[in-house]
Amino acid sequence: MVYEKLSKNALRCMYAAGAVTGVILLAVIGAVDYFWVFPEDIVIGKWISLGAALFILADVCVSPWFRFCRYRYGINEECIDIQEGYLFVKRHIVPIERLHKLEMRTGPLDRAFGVAKVIVTTAGGDVTIAFLDTERAERIADTLRKRINAIAAEQREERREMDHGRE
Fold first, then answer.
1. pLDDT tens-digit series, residues 40-66
2. Mapping DSSP to helix (H, G, I), strand (E, B) and coil, where does residue 68 land?
3. Fewest Cβ atoms nearer than 10 Å: which of 17, 42, 73, 87?
4. What integer pLDDT is reported at residue 132 of this predicted model?
5. Could you give the count of Cα atoms lying within 13 Å of 146 in the half-sphere of its Cβ?
6. How is the beta sheet containing 72-75 ordered, strand by strand?
7. More confident residue, 102 or 162
C-alpha cells in the first residue's frame, strides 16, 4: 500500500489548534491559581501551576510536529489504512466493503487553513482521515462514494441472482 503524507497546511492547522487549546488550558490554570485553589502562602501550588504551564507550552510546540510526521493514510481497492499518534501510534484499517456512510467536514480552523476531514462510518464506528487539503478530501470522498455504490450494485445483483435461482 502506498501511504500519503499531509501537506504543510495540515501542520499549520495542527499548530493553530494546539495553540487554541493551550491558551484555554493556560487560562484555566491561571484562573484556578488566582481565584480558588492556592492561597498566597502556599508556594508549592504556584510551582505546580508553573510546571503545568511549562508542560502545556512544550506540548503545544512539540506535539503537532510529531503528529504531523507520524500521520499516514493509504487507500486502495480493499481498505483504508490510517496511522496516527503522538506518544502512542494507532492504526485503523477499514475494509472498503464495510463502509456505510461517508461525510466531509470542516471546522473554522480547517477552513482557515484549507483542510478538511473525510469521515467514514462502518458498523463498528467512525474513522476519520483528517487534515486533508480540501481538494484532496473531495477527490477521496468522491472515489470512496463511487466504490461504495459499485459494491452496493454488486450486492443487489447477487441478491437478484439468488432470488431468481430460488424461483
1. 666 777 788 889 999 999 999 999 999
2. helix
3. 87
4. 95
5. 6
6. 72-75, 79-85, 89-95
7. 102
Helices marked H in the chain: 8-31, 43-70, 108-113, 134-166
DSSP code per residue over 110-156: HHHHTEEEEEEEETTEEEEEEEEEHHHHHHHHHHHHHHHHHHHHHHH
> Is the dihedral angle over the CA atoms 146, 152, 158, 163 positive or is it negative?
negative
Grid cell digits, residue 139: 477527490
> Domain map of the chain by residue range?
94-166
Chain centroid offset of residue 58 CA:
21
Residue matched to cell numbers 467512525: 126
Q: For residue 101, how many C-alpha atoms fall within 13 Å in the half-sphere facing its CB?
A: 11
Task: Give the cell for residue 55.
Answer: 508542560
Per-residue pLDDT reduced to its tens digit, 89-105:
999 999 988 888 899 99
Task: Name residues whose C-beta falls within 8 Å of residue 118's C-beta, 6 or more positions apart in sequence.
Answer: 102, 103, 104, 128, 129, 132, 137, 140, 141, 144
Which element (helix H / strand E) includes 33? none
- In degrees, rounded to 5, the angle at the alpha carbon of residue 63 between the alpha carbons of residues 62 and 64 is 100
Interval 141-155 mean pLDDT: 88
